[in-house]
Amino acid sequence: MRITTKGRYALRALINLAATSQGRPKPIKAIAKEENISPEFLEQIFFKLKKADLINSVRGPGGGFMIHRDPATISVKAIFLAVEEGLDLTPCTPCIPCDDSEGENLRNGADPCSNTDQCVARSVWKTISDQIIRYLESITLATILEENQEQLQSLLDQSRPD
């Protein structure tokens, strides 16, 4: 599993949005500036996050983006699934653990190993993959906000209007 720039930026942007928007729409340019992310690249990321129903947009004056669900229900896994190509650790451990609704998203399209049936190491990769996925499921935006209040204070100070 490789977390790309899209995954890292998506997580940072959603943390920013959850920490600073206070239930009001926040312009993408403000988030991009605060997180030092290209607004155009962030638009691409937000398109995927909106499609995954993690954020919604409000048009017009005072518009912007908002977290669509309670931050306690948005896991890091859900964020990565929205923007990453897949969460496979190796070609022989696709979709583990996953259910039918997420299976296609977890699979990164790599061809399964031709040695899967005889491979002794597969159980090691499966165990590692399972633990990573479970860990990503266990971390929510709310957890991140709670555990990083001190660091988030500078972000809150920065995002306040002058």
Automatic annotation (TrEMBL):
List the Gene3D superfamilies hit by this protein, alphabetically.
Answer: Winged helix-like DNA-binding domain superfamily/Winged helix DNA-binding domain
Which InterPro entries does this chain map to? Tscrpt_reg_Rrf2, WH-like_DNA-bd_sf, WH_DNA-bd_sf
- Single GO MF annotation: DNA-binding transcription factor activity
Q: Which UniProt keywords apply?
A: DNA-binding
An example Gene Ontology cellular component term from the record?
Answer: cytosol
Q: Which domain of life is it from?
A: Bacteria
Which Pfam family name is an example for this entry? Rrf2
Q: Which SUPFAM superfamilies match?
A: Winged helix' DNA-binding domain
PROSITE patterns in the record, alphabetically? Answer: HTH_RRF2_2 (PS51197)
Question: NCBIfam families annotated for this entry?
Answer: rrf2_super
Protein name per Swiss-Prot or TrEMBL = AsnC family transcriptional regulator
What organism is this sequence from?
Answer: Alkalispirochaeta sphaeroplastigenens
